[in-house]
Amino acid sequence: MECVAEFSRLKYTDIPNRGLLATFSSEDASFELHVNLSKLQEVRLAKTKSRNADYDVYAARFVGEGEKVMLTAILHGSQQGVCEPEAITRFQELVSKYGEKFQVTL
User: Fold this and answer.
1) 7 neighbors 76 (Cβ within 8 angstroms)
2) pLDDT single digits (tens) 6-21
3) Is-above-0.85 flag for pTM?
4) What is d(CA 64, CA 39) in angstroms, rounded to the nearest whole number?
5) Strand locations in the chain, DSSP E?
6) Radius of gyration over alpha carbons of the chain, in Å?
7) Distance in angstroms (rounded) separating the CA atoms of residues 29 and 9
8) Which residue in 35, 39, 41, 46 sits closest to 13, CA to CA?
9) What value does the mean pLDDT of the chain take?
10) How far apart (Å, rounded) are the C-alpha atoms in residues 3 and 102?
11) Full DSSP string of 25-42
């Protein structure tokens, strides 16, 4: 499933027998995304070249047990390959602070 939206709202819910759930949603709540943080083990931040065109792709992959990718979030702009400069700066700040791969502990 793909969605292009700004996820400006974030809340955490500790659900008995399931663990800590993060809920990301759009401002108007027309779309929600749930990630079970209790199963999250690692985050990978990657800048790669697009396979189909000449632009950079910025992706965050949330990895769980058995190297299974639980979620991939990609920076996306209004046009293919064009992202908000501030979003790219924030992505690069995350890489500088945490590295391209980091373990998640709760």
Assistant:
1) no
2) 777 899 999 999 999 9
3) no
4) 6
5) 9-15, 19-25, 32-36, 42-49, 56-63, 69-74, 101-103
6) 15
7) 9
8) 35
9) 89
10) 25
11) E-TTSS-EEEEEGGG--E
